[in-house]
Every structure is written in C-alpha cells, then in structure tokens.
Write a structure and sequence with these properties.
Layout: H1 7-19, H2 32-45, H3 56-62, E1 79-80, E2 84-86, E3 91-100, E4 116-127, E5 133-134, E6 138-144, E7 152-154, E8 166-167, E9 172-182, E10 188-195, E11 206-212
Parallel strand pairs: 1-11, 3-11
Antiparallel strand pairs: 2-3, 3-4, 4-9, 5-8, 6-10, 7-9, 10-11
C-alpha cells in the first residue's frame, strides 16, 4: 500500500534526492506536468517569429496568434481593402478602393475598350518614419481573384495622382493607379504593392477587394 505524503514531506524528499545527485526512477504524476511544460516552453522559445526564413507551417503553429499588419514577421497576405500594412521604416500603405473609371478625356482620345473594365485604384501612403520615402519605388501588380487574369497598367488623365516624387516624414497622401482588366475575369481582384529596395527581405503586401462603380 502506497502512503500519500504531505506537500511538506514531498518537498523534503525531493530536496534530499537532488542533493544526492540521483534522478532515481520516480515517475510520479506530480513531477510529470512540470517536465512537459518545460519542454513546451523550450520549443516555443526556439521559434523566431520575425525570421523571414520561417516556413508557413511553423509560423501558423507558433506565431499566428501574434499576427499583425506590420512588416515585422506578421501577415502581409489576406489583407482587405481599407486595411493598412506598415514596412519596418515606417511607411504605411492602404488600398482604399478600386472603382470603375469612366471620366475619359475626350481631347486625349481616351475611351472604353470593349470587353474590358477600366478602373482606378486609390492608395493612401503615410510616412511615419524619420526619412523621406521615394514613391517611385512603389508599384502595383493586380490580378483577378476569381478565375485568373492580370490587369494591364495605364494612366487616365483626369484626376490622376501617380506614385511619383518623395513623401516627407509625417506626411500622408492619396495616390492613384489606373488599370484595365478583361471583363471575363470578373471584378474581384488582388492588389500586390511592390517596393523596390536594397533590402531584399521586404514583404510585398497583398490586398483583396472588388472593383465597384
């Protein structure tokens, strides 16, 4: 018959065994959870959620609960129109909307092309960093989100505010990007905002939304 020891007695016995340097063969349930918890903590500490080389499975298992929309190892995909992504230097970008474009400049011979949807994407850029940012470094890739297709970039004169020049620290602006996509690809799109930089580890955020009227 096993005698159940009090907590104080168990503590004294554990101290005595530790002092003798013997691990013994004790496999009591009192010690087992501590070993398991310790192992779990060690495992999570070994995962660096900010690592750019961390594969998707590891990130989902260990880091998905801490996902943010900043460029610090958080998510850069699955963003929706209206959400914001922030790069490490403080530049924020938001895809505000994508709307069908019809305000053609007749003097420039602009017009709708049959079988295609002309649209304008509006982006809000906000420089929260300490140095000026070159807006020319930003560019967009726009793809159909339903059954493929890629939009062709263009520029419509009226109301155009292209990604050009520099954005000073503490300044925000709304810029435009004009495109045309074949109507067979629908109006749901994925907008990828690329950024040219010497830092090849920069993420390119992806925003999903719909071309509206």
């Amino acid at each position: 018959m096993r005698v159940r020891a009090s907590a104080a007695t168990a503590a004294l016995l554990l101290a005595a065994l530790t002092a003798c340097g013997g691990s013994g063969n004790d496999s009591s349930s009192e010690n087992q959870p501590k070993a398991t918890a310790s192992a779990g903590q060690s495992s999570s500490e070994e995962v660096d959620c900010t690592s750019q080389t961390l594969d998707q499975a590891e990130w989902m298992e260990h880091c998905s609960g801490d996902a943010t929309v900043e460029g610090d190892g958080g998510k850069s995909t699955g963003l929706k129109f209206g959400e914001t992504y922030k790069w490490p230097d403080g530049l924020k970008v938001t895809v505000v909307e994508a709307k069908v474009f019809t305000d053609y400049d007749k003097d420039l011979m602009e017009s709708a092309e049959p079988g295609s949807t002309d649209f304008r994407v509006k982006l809000k850029v906000d420089n929260t960093g300490d140095a000026a940012v070159k807006l020319d470094d930003l560019s967009l890739i726009i793809e159909g989100a339903t059954n493929g297709g890629e939009a062709a970039s263009t520029i419509f004169e009226n109301g155009s505010e292209p990604l050009e020049g520099r954005l000073a620290p503490g300044v925000s602006a709304v810029k435009t990007n004009d495109n045309s996509i074949e109507t067979k690809y629908g109006k749901k799109i994925v907008v990828t905002v690329q950024r040219s930089s010497e830092n090849f580890d920069l993420d390119f955020p992806e925003f999903t939304g719909e071309i509206t009227k």
